[in-house]
Amino acid sequence: MGEGSRIAFFGGSFDPPHCGHLAVARAAQAALQLDRVLFAPVAAQPLKPNGAGAGLEHRLAMTRLAIAGHAGLELSLADAPDPSGAAPSPNYTIDTLDRLRRDLPSDSKLFCLMGADSFLGLRHWHRGAEIPFAAPLIVAARPGQSLADLGAALPSGLSLTGGVAAESESEPLAMRTYVLRNASGEVAPFYVLPSLHMDISASQIRSEIRRGARSIPTLLPGSVARYIAEHALYR
User: Fold this and answer.
1) Would you say 79 and 45 are in contact if contact means Cβ atoms under 8 Å apart?
2) What domains lie within the chain, and their CATH numbers?
3) DSSP output for 152-195
4) Residues 6+ away with beta carbon under 8 Å from 87
5) What's the confidence (pLDDT) of residue 2?
6) pLDDT 10s digits, 118-150
7) I want to staple 73 with a disulfide (CB 3.0 to 4.6 A). Which of 67, 167, 223, 229 is the partner?
8) By the 8 A CB rule, do 228 and 219 touch?
9) pLDDT the model gives residue 167
10) Smallest Cα–Cα separation from 180: which of 136, 216, 212, 217?
């Protein structure tokens, strides 16, 4: 990894990776001048005990196809199973971020990128209150989402205060920057991307595929739609 890089970890099931994921990553790239966004399909999601709809190898393959040709978007195995052969265990974001930080040059900057749905569940994550201080959060907001809405979703002991507003009609991908504080008085920046008006969910896509809907290709990169069809996934 190059020195001085600005890198965002973008974890999730990516089951399947869709156009909304790409839009969030590209918006974050533009707003925070990120050098790299690491798409990291998770092997075992602690809050999804029944597992993903498609196996990890399929999700890795689809993610690789989805980001192909997009400069700065990279596939990461940071949340893949431990290659040492240890028994599978849940992947916790805080542990993944700690490993990534150890591997980065000291002058690099690591962020944690997530969609609104993931952020709204942060209080239920393992050591969720520590995550924003391991890597500043970049959250893609929902339409009409307010500071109060975001603050209410924070894990216990964290508070969010107004920071620098950087939005204008001439800069549609501008973001809002807030300040996050914990009970010990530590502070971290908290970045909110404006709504991208792309109301897409992977669960919606899986449901649409099961019922044979024809609108799916508009929600997915073409290469991913073809892969799903070729491998008869989500049927």
Assistant:
1) no
2) 6-199 (3.40.50.620)
3) HTSPTT-EEEEEEE--BTTBTT--EEEEEE-TTS-EEEEEEEPP
4) none
5) 47
6) 898 999 999 999 999 999 999 998 777 777 778
7) 67
8) no
9) 44
10) 136
User: Please, what is the Cα angle at 131 between 130 and 135, to 5 degrees?
Assistant: 125
For residue 20, what are its two tokens? 């909304």
From residue 220, how far is each of 63, 143, 196, 226 by CA, in Å? 11, 21, 16, 10
Q: Which two tokens stand for residue 98?
A: 């700690």
Neighbours of 121 (CB within 10 A): 12
Find where tokens 């070729």 sit: 230
> Cis ω on the peptide bond leading into residue 83 (within 30° of 0)?
no
How many whole angstroms separate alpha carbon 34 and alpha carbon 71? 11
